[in-house]
Design a protein that fits this description.
The structure is a homodimer.
Chain A: E1 6-12, H1 20-31, E2 37-43, H2 47-51, E3 55-57, H3 63-68, H4 92-103, E4 106-113, H5 115-130, E5 136-141, H6 157-175, E6 182-188, H7 195-198, H8 200-205, E7 212-214, H9 222-236, E8 238-244, H10 255-267, H11 275-287, E9 290-295, H12 299-302, E10 307-308, H13 309-327, E11 333-342, E12 345-354, H14 355-358, H15 379-385, E13 392-393, E14 397-398, E15 401-402
Parallel strand pairs in A: 1-2, 1-4, 4-5, 5-11, 6-8, 6-9, 7-8
Antiparallel strand pairs in A: 2-3, 10-13, 11-12, 14-15
Helix pairs in contact in A: 1-13, 10-11
Amino acid sequence: MAKLTGAAVFGQSGGPTSVINSSASGVFQQALKEELITEVYGAAHGIKGILEENFYDMSKESQEELDLLKTTPSSALGSVRYKLADPSVDDTDYKRILEVFKKYNIRYFFYNGGNDSMDTTNKISKFLAKSGYECIVMGVPKTIDNDLFGTDHCPGYASAARYVATTIMEVYQDARVYDTPMITVIEIMGRNAGWLTAASALAAHKGAGPDLIYLPEVPFTIDKFVSDVRKVFDKTGKVIVAFSEGCKNNEGQYIAEMGSTLSTDAFGHAQLGGASSVLADIVKNEFKCKVRGIEFSLMQRCGAHIGSKTDVDEAFMAGSEAVKAATSGVTDHMVAFERIMVDGKYTCKPQLVNLSYAANTEKTFPMEWLNKEKNFVTKEFIEYALPLIQGDSHPPYVDGLPRFAKLNKVLVPKK
Amino acid sequence: MAKLTGAAVFGQSGGPTSVINSSASGVFQQALKEELITEVYGAAHGIKGILEENFYDMSKESQEELDLLKTTPSSALGSVRYKLADPSVDDTDYKRILEVFKKYNIRYFFYNGGNDSMDTTNKISKFLAKSGYECIVMGVPKTIDNDLFGTDHCPGYASAARYVATTIMEVYQDARVYDTPMITVIEIMGRNAGWLTAASALAAHKGAGPDLIYLPEVPFTIDKFVSDVRKVFDKTGKVIVAFSEGCKNNEGQYIAEMGSTLSTDAFGHAQLGGASSVLADIVKNEFKCKVRGIEFSLMQRCGAHIGSKTDVDEAFMAGSEAVKAATSGVTDHMVAFERIMVDGKYTCKPQLVNLSYAANTEKTFPMEWLNKEKNFVTKEFIEYALPLIQGDSHPPYVDGLPRFAKLNKVLVPKK
């Protein structure tokens, strides 16, 4: 596309990560430098902020706070889960976006998110083009699920992986402190892709991790699970299981739902807890020993205090590269990462992939990186993941506690 | 007591903390230097290791691993929950301990634990004295509950408090990322004392903490809880609640048990989850909004990667001071901490308190540090807790992951 002069808007979408604000920092700091970009806006709550004309003027933020964004978890601008309709069915939102873009002369649109958000970004771009409105549209990837197509890995994944691996290493010490049998079942995020649950293997690689790992890519059955646990239990009396919240049986039932049926059948009452408490109840009943169900919950995706420096830096780069590409005339692409190994040393190079390619489908965990029993991952995964979690990143501490960015959030007067 | 020459044994007892091994490091490093101490033994699984003569020869450990103990969470020697009988009722275990101590010429006994362990230590000391066996007995405090008498605070508390405060600050960012109502209920450890739950107020002090705090010292009723939540919810639509696992109603029922009754009444089924899922279910039903129940589980007591340097150093000092006092002839005492504020600057001085005093009873949270509504803590608590969490402590990272101590654990041949 020809180079455009005008305002830029950036929005954050979907579930937060530890580093989505680092990408925001990269976008803002680069955009504020670009001559072609006349104004830099942050959309409050993603696409919703565009529809409602809620824009923050990012030129009103201090350099210090923009830098602090790099180590501030979650979405500083606010996020959203809002799915745009298919424009061929209902183009109301698209027309509204076009109207707003025209009003504010927005010629650069950057959107930060996962699969769904890349799809949204792509649809908006196509609609604007069809309407004859010139606007450069770029996607910035993020997801702890690591399931975006066309990129070696996704910003946000490695910090969550480092949280998972570090925390399991600590829980491992705790869970074997008594000389009595104990089973620990740990629930990790990832509805459809097992990348984050697989990161528990990094703890095992250091000798302090799970014995068994269950990913959503493999159908989960209670019988196989209990028999797997029994094998380890009979040998050591201590078992740690890492499993994905997304594990489903052949009928597509999630573990929490399986528990409901099972518990009602076996004990005459419904089980209301999450998946970790369902599995904990099942093994407690089977093995009559101390059992603990643990859910890493929100902590795994916002644990910036144990972030990966590699991840934080790459997330920043993804943001700044999106702006550089945009001002050089590229549109309809997402920034992706290419892994280059030189003499065994990892480097990461930004590359651009077509938005429609990235929005296409989920990149699930490779089946060839599972062991024969499909209850653990192979060393190929360790080789893949280990370089990503290198380097210690945490926010600066003031009074022993994190100092996160505090944005002024000066609203742009509505036009 | 006259100075004694002989072997020393050290054991760890009760629930692990992030810094109990730092006290072990202090005991071992000091004991290995003392001329009066001929051998330094680590008891496997506390008192059980003594009864079973399972001793590790600590002189067989490298300086590097002994140093790494300072940042290795949980009990490296193994812990135990074993309550000795009242010796006037059943002195079998005491006689066995005496037999073992004689056999190995153990003249120094150091025991690291909370209330119950100090009681055990005290009973053993009295029994040995009554039996005419000369042995110096010293307690080393530890508990994340911070409920030991005769000390300003307890090793282990501050690191758990720093975990709680930091993690809530992160969860706070995550929990308000969407512009839709959300209620988050966070369960924190502490069966009888609210010190650790109160630490959530440190996050609030930094503007990113809970709106409501419930301690076990205050009777908990669902009605008051729901009405408290409603007041915040109506104002902001976002509520974060921190509550102690030890919260009970006037009849002494824990929250998890209340839920069971409540859920059966209201929906016709039993609620099996922990306290956080019980409260989450209650507010979900009342407020019809997104609700998340979070349990900090084992992570809060083994999160050495976000330890307090102050705590780690003080825990080490408690260990080394116990040895120094012992070799100077002191017995039947526990090392305690005195807080000295000089020009507003915190310093911590070791002092010795009588074991029977420390074992006496639990130090609960002061009622005068609660607000009028008894659903938050006052600034006096912040002033008390803030100095304790200063300084960043974490294990050294190798390959981006913690490097914990790996002891050789060379067993002493049984005599």
